[in-house]
Design brief:
single chain, alpha/beta, Rossmann fold, five-stranded mixed sheet
């Protein structure tokens, strides 16, 4: 099943993330796909709000790889696999996040080795213009 949503501003992208965040539960995995600047981290800020976290604490974990946020109704594990390749991803030991007590949001989800998780939701972003997704 595919749902296509058009957003015309970052606030709309965050609002969709917030709606989803309100529905998520411990153990949920959300894969995020889209080119650089397409809105993945903006969407995660909305997820954070939906999980009762402070969106201002959310930034792209491109260089830290994993950012852990614990002050919401459930923890949020924000993972960025952009700089990694297959073997490197396996060495990260993501099981504690993927099968933990929080929600896991993974940017560049296609870099996660196939079969690592069985149940997940993938949200894909397409950059239409400077503001539109």
């Amino acid at each position: 099943m595919t749902l296509k949503v058009h957003t015309a501003a970052a606030e709309e992208t965050k609002a969709w993330g917030e709606r989803l965040g309100q529905l998520l539960f411990p153990g949920a995995v959300v894969g995020l796909e889209g080119e650089l600047g397409a809105g993945k981290t903006c969407f995660v800020k909305g997820l954070a709000t939906g999980l009762a976290l402070d969106e201002d604490e959310i930034s792209s974990p491109t260089f830290t790889l994993v950012a852990e946020h614990y002050r919401g109704r459930v923890p949020l594990y924000h993972i960025d696999l952009y700089r990694l390749e297959g073997a490197e991803v396996e060495e990260l030991g993501l099981d504690e996040y993927l099968f933990g007590q929080g929600v896991t949001a993974i940017e560049w989800f296609h870099f996660l080795p196939a079969g690592t998780v069985e149940e997940y939701l993938v949200v894909s972003f397409t950059l239409v213009s400077a503001d539109e997704r």
